[in-house]
Amino acid sequence: MIFNDSIRYIDNTLYCDAVSMPEIVAQTGTPVYIYSLRRTIQNFRRIQSAFAGLNAHVRYSAKANANLAILGALVNAGAGIDAVSAGEIHRALLAGAPPDDIVFAGVGKSPDEIRYALEKGVGWFNVENILECQHINTIAESLGRTGVRVALRFNPDVVAMTHPNIATGHGGAKFGLPAEMIGELLSQQRSYPNLNFAGIHLHIGSQLHDTQATQQAVRAALNLIAPYPNMRVVNIGGGLPVAYRPDEVLPSFEDFAATLTPLLQGYEVLLEPGRSIIADAGLLVTSVLYEKRQGKLTFVIVDGSMTELMRPALYNAHHEIVAVSRRSDTMREVTVVGPVCETTDVLGRDVPMPYIDSGDLLALLTTGAYGMAMSNNYNQRPRPPEVVVEEDGQTWRIARRRETWDDMVQAETNL
Ligand code: LLP
Fold first, then answer.
1. DSSP assignment of 61-103, as one string?
2. Among the four residues 20, 114, 249, 287, which has the most C-beta atoms within 10 Å?
3. What is the rounded average pLDDT of the residues 372-391?
4. Are residues 269 and 293 in the same domain?
5. Is 82 near ligand 1, meaning CB less than 6 Å away?
């Protein structure tokens, strides 16, 4: 079932923990993102306990959802943060993350970002480029910083079973360093006196459908660092998968942990899960505007669109779409679309839907990850508000207000 302990129907109305969707929408309007902090923390704990056989630490991947309320709750629960830009580091620090628990990753860190991260004392740099090592070393020297911890991102040249647009570990991808270059860097560690080469990093893709490719990649990484006793940390990246359809069969967190635990004994392990912590804790609620029949299709036009949720347009991704007030009426199949002037602004095809009216609420499920994080203002659509239902399951608050038309022009009018 796509529902979980937090996101489910009670008496035919959709709830997030003990709060009904209509209660929230009465105050916020639509479209609106709603997240269960209880489910978020539960997911974090489920990952921690699956990997309890290792000396493992979670560094939540902020790119999946960087709302300060989410980051704050995870930091309070003991997570560090995986950041891919100075902006994400800034947010992580605002959320109270200890700098030492922040890893700075990314294929193209600018000198300004490197300086900022060094000044703030972030714990790790995941390095993807030889020149980047030189930059970090030079900037560290100018700031009088030594012992800057570096994990080399390894591109193991394995093909992960996932959507081609989110695979990263194959030879043709822009990510990581091939084995030869890592070997070269490790043999020249002394050329970088301000750096401490202490770890290897890999991330072969997101929404991984099998454990084998990860196992193969980790094995290769361990072989690579075997001659270097200073390399004691293995960052295995993110990619733990989430079911987007009720019938989707995927390896569990425990399956990944069982495959990797025997290999990684004696190492410190870092994990960078994003999606698996926040995806199924979130939903996007939208209102029906109109319905029309065109050709052979019935279009349901809603006030949410590809600007709030790009995943269907960008990856052909599937999100379950359900009526907030469940009805037992006859179902028909509809195409759910947004108001944006793009043919690809389709949120769901062949969606089973009861007969609904203008103003009825629909929910797009499993949208906590890479939903709001990838939203934009195309067509001058204000970004939606984000609501969190607190860990007590009862109280809720607006964690980010809806943008206004003025917000969208502010950066231009102040010039
Ligand atoms: N670590 C690294 C180095 C990554 O590149 C990523 C994701 C993660 C961790 C977190 O992966 P996760 O646990 O969330 O799978 N926008 C796409 C996903 C892009 C993922 C990019 N990197 C989507 O909506 O499916």
1. EGGG---HHHHHHHHHHT-EEEESSHHHHHHHHHTT--GGGEE
2. 114
3. 98
4. no
5. yes
